[in-house]
Automatic annotation (TrEMBL):
Pfam families from the UniProt entry: NMT1_2
Primary location recorded for the protein, binned into one broad class: periplasm
Protein name per UniProt: ABC transporter substrate-binding protein
Taxonomy, superkingdom: Bacteria
PROSITE patterns, per database record: PROKAR_LIPOPROTEIN
Keyword annotations from UniProtKB, A to Z: Signal
Location(s), subcellular: Periplasm
Native source organism of the sequence: Paenibacillus cisolokensis
Amino acid sequence: MKRRRKIGLPAALAVALLFAALLAGCGRNEGATKIRIGEVTRSLFYAPEYVAIEKGFFEEEGLEVELTTTFGGDKTMTALLSGTIDVALVGSETSIYVYQQGADDPVINFAQLTQTDGTFLVARKLDGEFDWNMLKGSVFLGQRKGGMPQMAGEFTLKKNGIDPHADLDLIQNIDFANIAAAFASGTGEYVQLFEPQASIFEREGKGRVVASFGVESGKLPYTVFMAKQSYIDKNREAIQKFTNAVYKAQQWVRDNDAETIADVVLPYFEDVDRDIVVSSIDRYKSQGSFAEDPIVDESEWNNLLDVMTSAGELAKRTEHQELVDTAFAETAIGKAAGQGD
């Protein structure tokens, strides 16, 4: 005869607690709206995005976000247009390219995250004080043609009396994700790099940061959360909640020092030493790279158009009102101030 095995009190309690935990877990996720984000690269430049996730600001708004790094503006926009992601974190220039190709479903910029270029000029070897004229005749490992890093870089070079195509041996045929590795392996005398890679190379003796393209090129809608107009029209409440969370994160980053921010975003940079993370965030904060609110400002938009025109990448000016919707950002700011619902 088979004997029925009794469950003792500790085991029974464990089962009950497990069941309760499962129910509680289901309850937390029930009704949450899922939004798939594609970020153009993984960088401390996007610290407020990681803060919004880690501090639970998206969750507070009833959102479940899935973050993917898509490595490159062209790849990020392809993912957005194909529906692989719902929201892209990428340079505003990509939305202009899509619009000028005659898209029936334009991509709309609704929440700005960064407001300057995020790259730094790294020199392989430098004796003495840096001068922009040192670049003349050098091998310069550039970014993808038509991308914001390259355009902001060219804008800065021209501002300092350098013709990037006549005065440099300019290399632009290396994929975005492989630029740092190419420089590390010996390609180029100068390169544009985001943090933390620029500081890592300084630590390893592979180069020295000599200038900031963010400081030199001025304020731009450099990296913005955007979505197709059709997605926004169908998901206005979710986009508003998303923008609310972004604004909470921006205010939190504004109000906290680099060390505090670093401790929150470290899970996204497991292979980077904490002191590098701290110094990189401090570098971005000190030059005003992190936007303090999500509004895509018209003056910054016009600066973007000037940069694109200078790079020869703009067929015609695409005005602010055509591809920017500030309503979500304005509502988020109003709500935080106690003026909204």
